[in-house]
Design brief:
166 residues; alpha+beta; 2 domains; two-stranded antiparallel ribbon; 8 strands; rod-shaped
Length: 166
């Protein structure tokens, strides 16, 4: 019996089935059975869903995976079960590994009216800023006029929110 983690176990025979469903491609040992859309191999054993790379790691190290740890791939191939390509780590370790390999990308920054949360158009922002720069208008009055909060007027006039042209 192989204890994968605190909640999952499989038999040696079931693990042998995993190996029979795997092929060697270069340095990777790729599971060819069922894979979830993200590419990770998964089996069902005694009504439990078990990721095969986790089972391979636990079988190779002869101990269960500690709670809270992921099994990460040095080869970045989700269905690889080659023990030399698997390491235990936290989510922070996994993200650091992703960035170190240049696989991360920062989400696009949408400024001004391109931001889906924008309330004002770029022209309205320019008009509001011009009104506040001219003086004589209170922030709460400008907020009521443009349909935004007083704090939004403050952030716009103090450049704490970027308009598209900033």
């Amino acid at each position: 019996m192989i204890r994968v983690d605190a909640n999952h176990t499989i038999t040696d025979a079931r693990f042998s089935d995993i190996l029979r469903q795997s092929i060697r491609v270069g340095e990777c040992l790729l599971f060819q059975g069922y894979r979830i859309p993200e590419g990770y191999g998964r089996i069902e054993f005694k009504c439990q869903q078990i990721y095969v790379h986790r089972a391979a790691y636990a079988e190779h190290h002869r101990r269960p995976i500690p709670p809270g740890l992921l099994i990460c791939h040095t080869c970045d191939t989700p269905n690889c079960i080659e023990p030399a390509h698997l390491f235990a780590g936290t989510n922070i370790d996994n993200v650091a590994d992703m960035w170190a390999k240049g696989r991360g990308s920062k989400p696009p920054v949408h400024t001004g009216e391109e931001n889906p949360n924008a309330t004002l158009s770029d022209k309205q922002v320019a008009d509001l800023r011009a009104m506040m720069a001219a003086g004589g208008t209170k922030q709460r009055d400008a907020a009521a006029l443009f349909g935004v909060s007083q704090s939004t007027v403050w952030r716009l006039t103090h450049q704490k929110v970027r308009a598209h042209h900033d």
